[in-house]
Write a structure and sequence with these properties.
- The complex is a heterotrimer of chains A (505), B (146) and C (141).
- By secondary structure, chain A is mainly α.
- Chain A has helices at residues 16-34, 37-62, 87-114, 120-139, 143-162, 170-200, 205-212, 219-236, 244-251, 254-279, 285-311, 316-337, 340-371, 382-385, 387-401, 407-421, 425-450, 465-483, 486-500, and strands at 68-71, 82-85.
- Chain A has one domain (16-500).
- Chain A has 19 helices and two strands.
- The longest helix of chain A has 32 residues, at 340-371.
- Chain B has one domain (5-137).
- Chain B contains five helices and no strands.
- Chain B is elongated and about 65 Å long.
- The two termini of chain B are 22 Å apart.
- With 141 residues, chain C is mainly alpha-helical.
- Chain C has a domain at 3-61 and 75-110: Helix Hairpins (Orthogonal Bundle).
- Chain C contains five helices and no strands.
- Chain C has helices at residues 3-8, 10-28, 32-53, 80-110, 115-133.
- In chain C, helix 2 (10-28) packs antiparallel against helix 3 (32-53) and helix 3 runs antiparallel to helix 4.
- Chain C is elongated, with a radius of gyration of 23 Å.
- Chain C starts with a helix and ends in an 8-residue tail after the last helix.
- Classes of the chains: A mainly alpha (505), B mainly alpha (146), C mainly alpha (141).
- Chain A binds chain C through residues 144, 147-148, 151, 155, 158-159, 162, 165, 169-170, 172-173, 175-176, 179-180, 183-184, 186-187, 190-191, 194, 197-198, 203, 243, 246-247, 309, 312-315, 318, 322, 375-378, and chain C through 23, 26, 32, 35, 39, 42-43, 46, 49-50, 53, 80-81, 84, 87-88, 91, 94-95, 98-99, 102-103, 105-106, 109-110, 118, 122, 125, 129-130, 132-138, 140-141.
């Protein structure tokens, strides 16, 4: 039974895996209970900060390859639900909670501007639930629990996107589209889990990994794998499954876009990594085939097609959304190569792209705030009027391209390294070429911001300091993680080791 | 609704037993099939039936929307609070055994009752909230669409 | 293809048929409410699949007698898939009601819930944007 007569007494450090998600989970309903938008914001910020501190502490704990295991309700795994934190998920937790903590101060002004007053409390409640869901997806070691948290985050995401209807009614239809596709994706994921459960009789990921070993000929397992990859692929917006993403990011309000772009697809990519490399062993023949003949070509297609579409956009938000699809391509490419270096590249790109995209979308949010539009045509010559905001865009853009000295460079360098290690020089060449496409669309915006003359008589000032500081914290992070790679590289390497070395044992 | 005497009388007769049955399903859930989800929905049905027969304004007087919303949040807090309480006792989240260390089974009994109460409150409140949300928005229906 | 293969996997066949019906409705119907209905059928097929795999032949309800005198000969069905699906059903309800709520809002804003009419309105909006802000690629896709 759950409670034996002797109960071990746990300190707060042992509770960290749970507290990281429990704090925002409690803060969400508290927002509604207080029913005041100022208190709601404070609650959201404090909860997110606490989660951030906890996940930073966990990251430091697991950097030497340790695994934290937390048994919910005292039921030991594999029977009970286990929260299992190793370097891979601690790193993603660190990213998600860090981004959330930084963007909440930014959110205050932006939300006031873009969302009607009555919904502010509910906005922060949904935000916290979405945050909880994303953290939960990452922290849990139970396959079905992933689905539950995934749906918590997805359902609140649909609401958050639909709240953008204040600015543009198309937010509603894009939220609806995302709801249909997202539900199909999540249901596919559940079917996959069901197949694995039939074959193995367990739901715990570590236990699944042990029991799946040697079952590679099993059709049920193969079908389960396919369902899981497609289901999660929808959530991660892998190229042909990305259709929900551009509209959702374009019509959602700025803060929501920043948050989703920096975290939501990242959590899905993490789940893909976890299932492809620790639950299923990469030695499974069918998996190697899928990686080489399906995932890799799709990744390359994403890198080029999405970048190309991005280059032809006039709306900055839509442009950056397509760029996100392209960047997911790089992460998927790392998964497709399936070597230790390429997995490090995926994990590190997940992090670097998270902060880079957050900066860029925050800048666009600032434009929407001051100029009321995110279309390139309306942003002529803003470089002089909003110097700090535009400078942040330039640095973020450089990081997106992968210029040395920025965070984006490190991940692309690792990816090229991984390709060369496998003697795929053409792949390395393709990565460089697709980066050139990023130059095209980033330059297009920089040209608008700096080379064009501002409209006659327009007086546009800088955004308030409470929006600039978060923006610049992340901008500096873009540079910092490009110069000092100790934290990111170590985490990514340990994480890749953990994933490939069978997080099973 | 003035004319539907039968409907009005029967609804008035039914609402009480429905709520009573909901409470039975709620608190008997650990001995027989039942629990918070089912009880919550049955509980909400009483109010939805009342709303359908007597109209939205009447049911909103009985169960005002702002209370519904607060209750939905409160239920989640009861659930999570039970878990947090077991954390504070130095055990894992939702380990009810920790409530009464000398006799864990008692703690488990209490724990599941409280947690299911939280579930029940949230489910009932959410169901009523969904009904309010949809019923409060009369659609504009054109003549030819009938 | 023996009859045993067909009859022995009856629950899987039903699951596949139901799933495909639901999936087809989602893809082929233009009415937003019908799409939600299709999504529901699709989800229900998965619930059915889970519930059927929890059944153990000759098994009874997995509830121990109150006095805890467990007869080792009694076979119990597997309760775990049922519990999982209870969660999934709740998620399904939340998805359905959220989808319907979105439809109500869409109807208020667009005046229709037919996909082709909404696409038409959206492409007009897009065309207006294109003429104001310069041509762009992609549209709703």
């Amino acid at each position: 039974m759950a409670g034996s007569t002797i109960l071990p007494t746990l300190g707060i450090i042992d509770q960290l895996p749970l507290l990281t998600i429990a704090v925002p989970l409690v803060a969400g309903p508290l927002c509604v209970l207080f029913g005041n938008k100022h208190i709601a914001w404070v609650l959201a910020f404090v909860a997110s900060l606490i989660s951030f501190l906890f996940s930073a502490h966990m990251l430091l704990q697991v950097l030497d390859g340790d695994v934290l295991s937390y048994h919910l309700g005292g039921w030991a795994p594999p029977l009970g639900i286990e929260y299992r934190v190793d370097a891979a998920n601690a790193f993603v937790l660190f990213l998600i909670s860090g981004i959330s903590t930084v963007i909440l101060p930014y959110a205050r002004k932006s939300v006031e501007h873009e969302i009607k007053k009555v919904s502010h409390t509910l906005f922060y409640c949904c935000y916290l639930l979405c945050f909880t869901g994303l953290l939960g997806v990452v922290v849990t070691g139970d396959a079905f629990n992933v689905f539950v948290f995934l749906e918590i985050s997805s359902l609140s995401t649909y609401v958050l996107i639909a709240m953008g209807a204040e600015r543009d009614r198309r937010a509603l239809t894009s939220a609806y589209d995302y709801l249909i596709l997202g539900t199909i994706g999540a249901t596919f994921f559940v079917i996959g889990i069901g197949f694995l459960y039939i074959a193995t009789g367990t739901l715990n990921m570590a236990d699944l990994a042990v029991r799946l070993a040697g079952m590679e000929g099993n059709r049920t397992v193969q079908a389960g794998f396919a369902f899981i990859v497609v289901g999660m692929g929808l959530k991660a917006a892998i190229y042909p499954l990305h259709l929900w993403l551009p509209s959702a990011y374009t019509y959602a309000s700025s803060v929501v876009t920043v948050f989703l772009a920096a975290t939501a697809t990242k959590a899905a990519i993490y789940v893909l990594l976890r299932f492809m490399f620790s639950v299923f062993q990469p030695e499974f023949v069918f998996e190697t085939h899928i990686l080489t003949f399906i995932i890799m070509p799709l990744a390359i297609l994403a890198m080029f097609a999405a970048s190309l579409i991005a280059a032809f956009q006039t709306d900055l938000k839509r442009l950056l959304a397509y760029s996100s699809v392209a960047q997911v391509g790089y992460m998927i490419l790392g998964i497709g190569l399936a070597t230790k270096i390429s997995l490090s590249a995926t994990i590190i790109h997940l992090f670097n792209h998270g902060i880079t995209k957050a900066v860029l979308f925050m800048v666009v949010g600032a434009f929407v705030m001051q100029k009321g539009s995110s279309f390139a045509k309306n942003l002529n010559g803003l470089g002089k009027q909003m110097p700090w905001t535009c400078a942040a865009f330039v640095i973020g853009g450089l990081s997106l391209i992968g210029v040395p000295g920025t965070a984006g460079f490190i991940s692309k360098w690792l990816l090229i390294d991984a390709a060369l290690e496998e003697d795929l020089w053409w792949l390395a060449l393709l990565i460089v070429m697709s980066s050139l496409l990023a130059v095209v669309y980033v330059w297009k915006i920089v040209e608008v911001l700096y080379m064009k003359q501002p409209e006659e008589g327009s007086v546009i000032g800088e955004v308030s300091i409470s929006m600039l500081i978060p923006m610049w914290i992340l901008t500096i992070a873009c540079i910092y993680f490009g110069l000092n790679t100790e934290l990111t590289l170590t985490s990514a390497n340990v994480a890749a080791d953990g994933l490939l070395g069978g997080g099973a044992q | 609704m003035r004319h539907h005497l039968l409907l009005r009388v029967i609804t008035k007769l039914l609402v009480g037993p429905i709520i009573l049955f909901a409470l039975y399903v709620q608190f008997h859930g650990d001995y027989s099939p039942g629990g918070g989800f089912q009880a919550g929905v049955i509980f909400a049905v009483a109010f939805i039936l009342f709303g359908i027969v007597f109209g939205l304004t009447k049911v909103k007087q009985v169960f005002p929307p702002w209370i519904v919303h607060k209750l939905a949040a409160l239920g989640v807090l009861i659930y999570a609070g039970t878990g947090i309480y077991s954390l504070m006792l130095g055990s894992t989240f939702l380990n009810y055994g920790a409530f009464t260390p000398a006799h864990p089974e008692h703690g488990q009994h209490w724990g599941i009752l409280i947690v299911e109460l939280g579930v029940g409150i949230t489910v009932a409140a959410v169901m009523v909230a969904i009904y309010y949300a949809f019923a409060a928005r009369p659609p504009v229906i054109n003549d030819e669409e009938w | 293809m023996t009859s045993e293969f067909i009859l022995g996997h009856l629950n899987y066949w039903l699951f596949i048929v139901l799933m495909m019906i639901g999936f087809y409705i989602v893809v082929a119907r233009g009415n937003y409410i019908k799409k939600i209905v299709g999504l529901n059928v699709f989800q229900v097929s998965v619930f059915m699949f889970y519930i059927s795999i929890g059944k153990v032949e000759g098994g009874t309800a997995p509830i121990f007698p109150l006095d805890m005198n467990i007869d080792p000969d009694v076979v119990y069905s597997n309760p775990l898939p049922h519990v999982l699906i209870l969660t999934a059903i709740v998620v399904g309800i939340a998805t359905t009601s959220l989808g319907l709520a979105l439809i109500v809002r869409i109807r208020e804003e667009f005046g229709t819930i037919e996909e082709d009419e909404i696409l038409e309105i959206e492409s007009k909006l897009q065309a207006k944007e294109n003429s104001a802000e310069g041509p762009s690629m992609g549209g709703r896709a």
